[in-house]
Each structure stands twice: as C-alpha cells, then as structure tokens.
Design a protein that fits this description.
alpha/beta, globular, five-stranded parallel beta sheet, about 140 residues, single chain, Ribose 5-phosphate Isomerase B, Chain: A, 6 helices
C-alpha cells in the first residue's frame, strides 16, 4: 500500500498525486494533512511512518515544503529509509541502491509532472541487493 503524508506546504502536490492515482486506479492511504491550514510536519511524518511500518510491502510518499523536514523526522525511525528525491535518477537510485521505503518530495520545488515521473520510477524500481544490502546492514 502507498501511504501519503504531507504538511500544508505539500498539500497541493499531494492532492495532484491523489488525482493521478485515482485516474490510474492506484490505491493509497492518505494520513493528512487535509487542507492548506498550517500544521506541524513532524506530526504528519510520524503518522506516515506508523502506517508504512504496518506492512513490509508498504511505501510512503511524504511531502513538505522542501522535503527536508519530512526526511529528517522519518529517518529517525531505524526501519525507515526515506529519500528526498529531486530527479528521476535520484528516485531510481533511492530504490535500486538504498532500498528506500519512503519517497520524500519538496512541495514548493517539485512540479506535478516531475513528481509523477519520480513516483512511477520509485514504485517500479527493484532493490539490487548484493553489495547494496551489505551497506544497508551497516545502518
């Protein structure tokens, strides 16, 4: 399952992503926020992390203004590997080399078109394992 979490600065992009998911019949769980009203991103990051960890197959897409805050909060949990991605290449490598289970986007710096391209790649790229698994084991 895909878990969506955002703060007010990521709300617009999250809603655009949800519309794309609906058009493609992709299921997702939205843990908030649900408007442009100011909220504290740590609260939403924690809610997203909790849902991602419910099932090893779950992945998250977290969005705040820059993506930095959501990344910092999510990565405090040792079972989360949140990657702030800014390009198609970083989205692919986050999965391929780092087995990221959360894609983080900057809502103020990422267009809908670019976000959807990164999400598609993130969701369809497999982890390579091997030497990359050895590195993750050192986390």
């Amino acid at each position: 399952m895909i878990i969506l979490a955002c703060d007010h600065a990521g709300f617009k992009l999250k809603e655009e992503i949800k519309a794309f998911f609906n058009s493609e019949n992709i299921s997702a769980i939205d843990v908030g926020c649900y408007s442009n009203d100011t909220v504290d991103y740590p609260d939403l990051a924690h809610a997203g992390v909790e849902r991602v960890l419910e099932n090893p197959q779950n992945v998250g897409i977290f969005i705040c203004g820059t993506g930095i805050g959501m990344s910092m909060v999510a990565n405090r949990n040792p079972k989360i590997r949140a990657a702030l991605c800014t390009s198609k290449q970083t989205a692919v490598l986050a999965r391929k080399h780092n087995d990221a289970n959360v894609l983080v986007l900057g809502g103020r710096h990422t267009s809908k078109r670019k976000a959807i391209k990164m999400i598609k790649l993130f969701l369809t790229t497999d982890f390579e394992r091997g030497r990359h698994q050895q590195r993750i084991n050192k986390f």
